[in-house]
Specification:
This protein has 207 residues and is of the alpha+beta class. The protein is built from three helices and 13 strands, in the order αββββββαβββββββα.
Length: 207
């Protein structure tokens, strides 16, 4: 992070704008290249060098479909699907989730479900090791619905227990612009400062 960025905001001035938590949060949409959209709540705004950014949380629950690969030692490996594989199993996964009154949506950036999630049974929590920038973190997931087969392969649907968040640049008259990883790293210290000031564990909000 450059020294100009640090010096400008090393002061008592608060660079973010609080949303009124006594009213319903404002919503905006993020779009992908396919024209799909994801409805998000604006958790808060952050102004940096006259640019306005927003921390966004999906309105519906993010989910991920994994292929279940059986290993020789009776262990199972869960493999995320690419876009083509999601297309192949989407209708089946949607039908499985409808049995729990959950509606699977083909939204931008992540699949989501609308509805009330089933009660969480801690014994069912799935812990997955995730490699990111030479570091391994543990992500926890809640299973949704029963596993299902498409062809000879088994699949399962999970929702992450940690919040899924996005940071976007807000420009008047334009669609919100999702930040690149490099731009996010530039803003991350200020985001964490804001979250810590509101007694939220920052590790639950990591990118």
């Amino acid at each position: 992070m450059g020294s100009n960025y640090q010096n400008r905001y090393n002061s008592d001035e608060q660079p973010w704008e609080e949303d009124d938590f006594d009213r319903e949060l404002e919503q905006i949409r993020l779009y992908d290249e396919e024209g799909r959209f994801l409805n998000c709540y604006i958790e808060f705004r952050l102004t940096v060098q006259d640019e306005v950014y927003a921390l966004l949380r999906p309105v519906d629950y993010p989910v991920e479909i994994f292929a279940v690969i059986a290993e020789a030692d009776d262990e199972e490996t869960l493999v995320p699907l690419d876009e083509e594989e999601i297309d192949q199993v989407f209708d089946t996964a949607r039908a499985i989730l409808e049995e729990q009154n959950l509606t699977l949506k083909r939204t931008a950036l992540t699949l989501t479900v609308a509805g009330d999630l089933p009660d969480l049974d801690e014994e069912d929590i799935l812990s997955v090791e995730v490699d990111a920038e030479d570091d391994v973190t543990i992500e926890e997931y809640q299973p949704l619905g029963s596993s299902f087969f498409s062809g000879v392969r088994e699949y399962s649907v999970y929702t992450p227990l940690s919040p899924t968040l996005y940071v976007a640049r807000l420009v008047p008259g334009k669609e919100p612009e999702l930040l690149s990883p490099q731009d996010f790293q530039h803003l991350q210290p200020l985001l964490e400062e804001h979250l810590v000031s509101h007694f939220i564990e920052t590790e639950d909000w990591d990118d």
